[in-house]
Amino acid sequence: MDKASYLCFALLLVSLSPVQVKAGWSWTDIALAGVAGTAAVVAAPAFLTAAGFTSAGVAAGSFAAAAQSTYGGYVASGSLFAASQSAGAVGIGVKTATTIFAAAGGATLYAKEK
């Protein structure tokens, strides 16, 4: 298995904690959250590129360029824009992948219950 496969497997194992829903939790809910989280982690690099966060920096005429123009030449360290720019330039790290996985899995279960 390659590194991405190990990462997705590790994230799936982390997500196996019981998920509390109105009537309890089920393995189907956990599997759904795992699939949604994995899909989000896999899709994130393509989404960043489409938004204009590339390995060469912010692409001219893109959504990222329009957003950057509102900063007036200063992007705060640790901001969402800075994190997106970093991930677009060097790739998504383990912490970011874990955050994306958890957010997508949790949002999927929340939407399922609504």
Automatic annotation (TrEMBL):
Pfam families: Ifi-6-16. It is found in: Membrane. The chain crosses the membrane at residues 31-53. Gene3D superfamilies: 6.10.110.10. It comes from the Eukaryota. InterPro entries: IFI6/IFI27-like, IFI6/IFI27-like_sf. It is a multi-pass membrane protein. GO terms for cellular component: membrane. Residues 1-23 form the signal peptide. Belongs to the IFI6/IFI27 family. This is Interferon-induced 6-16.
